[in-house]
Amino acid sequence: MTDRPPNRGMRRRIASAVAALTFTSPAQAATTLGASAAESGRYFGAAVAGNRLSESAYANTLAAEFNSVVAENAMKWDATEPNPGQFNFSGGDQIVNWAQARGMKVRGHTLVWHAQQPSWAQGLTGNNLRNAMNNHITGVANHYEGDVFAWDVVNEAFEWDGSRRQSNLQIQLGNGWIEEAFRTADAADPSARLCYNDYGTDGINAKSTAIYNMVRDFRSRGVPIDCVGFQSHLSAGDNLSSYQANLQRFADLGVDVEITELDVGGSGSGQAATFKTVTDSCMAVSRCTGITVWGVTDKYSWRNDDPLLFDDNYQKKQAYTAVLNSLNEGGGTC
Where does the sequence pass through the membrane (predicted)? Predict the structure, then answer.
């Protein structure tokens, strides 16, 4: 661990403690998702599209109900570096400024992903791709240092069977590229929590076990990884029998766990029950620091099966009540 900055772990623990204090709200305010989550030092966030913030119902619901945001697309590689070395932070800055003006926290998503790479990066090979990846991580993480409390450093690098996704990053850079990305992000912003994020990890399975083994290896060798994100794109009735145990085994490695892109297709009591299972699981794992739903309203969801907590008219659904009750029942357990 000699290659990590002195007292880095202490600085990050202090930053996490400060974040928890910032999220805390008085008990009588716990009638919204964010305020209720804050009572246990957690956050409850939503993915945001900057062009929707001018819609009053969207902005008002977001500001009233959530205490954290993440950009749906505005901080990805194609959006932030459309040309080599020429950065454009306007979309991300809009979301950060809007959130900070309302006392909300910001997650960063995502520094490196096989998808939504700019066209100029897709054909790079060898050290040209390595340098482009590291320069991108450094440029974006430097820009948002102090504004983002956690980064999804690497997104979706494993296949369902637990093998590495054969992306251009894997093919050109080999197995060490994920570690390199985390070390580069740590150098660029030593205070942000650094996360690995993926989907299909909603229980103990081949994919989540491969990620678990990677995190265990990273922790044993001092690679700066602080958290694991579980996207949790679900459908009502999905088998979540090992969901909590899966979160706990990662937490037992000494990393935080976060539900990062939660949505649940379906309706009524079935949808509500699945949302409740996820929320209950997070509340039961002390190192589960927060939940982010992937959108504010069904109206703008990337899915067509009404998977969010507010309907097209921004009315609270049965799932909303189930989540709020779960947060309130679990408050103070952290």
Answer: none
Supply the pTM of this predicted model: 0.89
CB-CB neighbours of 192 under 10 Å = 24
Q: Residue 261 catalytic? A: yes
Q: How many Cβ atoms are within 10 Å of 171's Cβ, its own excluded?
A: 13
pLDDT tens, residue by residue, 224-256: 999 999 999 999 999 999 999 999 999 999 999
For tokens 């190192």, what's the residue?
Answer: 287
Contact 132, 84 (CB under 8 A): yes
Segments in the chain forming alpha helices (H) = 8-23, 33-38, 56-65, 77-80, 90-101, 119-122, 126-143, 168-173, 177-188, 206-221, 243-251, 268-284, 318-330
Q: pLDDT tens digits, residue range 84-107?
A: 999 999 999 999 999 999 999 999
pLDDT tens, position by position, 195-225: 999 999 999 999 999 999 999 999 999 999 9
Pick the CATH number of 34-331 from 3.30.1200.10, 1.10.1740.10, 3.20.20.80, 3.90.1150.150: 3.20.20.80
Ranges of each domain in the chain: 34-331
Residue 316 DSSP code: B
